[in-house]
Amino acid sequence: MKINTVLFDLDGTLINTNELIIASFLHTLNKYYPGRYKREDVLPFIGPSLTETFTSVDKERVEEMIQCYREFNHKMHDELVEEYDTVYETVTELQEKGYKIGIVTTKARGTVEMGLRFGRLKEFFDVVVTIEDVQNVKPDPEPIFKALRLLDAKPEEAIMVGDNHHDIVAGQNAGTKTAGVAWTLKGREYLESYKPDYVLEKMSDLLKIL
Questions:
Q1: Catalytic site residues?
Q2: Contacts (Cβ under 8 Å, ≥6 apart) of 126
Q3: Higher pLDDT, residue 127 or 126
Q4: Cα(137)–Cα(169) distance, rounded to whole angstroms?
Q5: pTM above 0.85, yes or no
């Protein structure tokens, strides 16, 4: 069946927030555990929800650490975030061609809004499913099912695009096609090990696939 719906992850997929996320984790963790965490230690924290990550670090101070993370993250957002090549052009063309497009992210809505504004992407997405909209986050299929319902789309007509295994597995669990992005911070081979249907060298490759 023809694909008419494209769902995107946000961070690390549509906008380059990698350095912002790493800096936010290091700021927070080194406040509570000075000198314990280095850059390579926080890379596995990219992808899961903040609740999941900080619960694994310190169950007693999860909300406190999330607050610390978000304050720094919002303060430094526009200084550390960058656009990815061909993203804006690709999303523009998808909209012009009539594709249904949405975002499925584990981020909070306020942070998502900042990212969309920065990337000049806000006008394109009528459907944005955040961590506040679901009980279970990716790789559970619930966020994808919710986005599909809101877009009046079927899994077999959709593709999920992301930079993390959570995105690929969530798409597989929901029954959509999947595309991994080769610019993932975790490395192309890591993402390919989860067997996405496609790997994009740049976002405009998506147009050729569709």
A1: 9
A2: 102
A3: 127
A4: 12
A5: yes
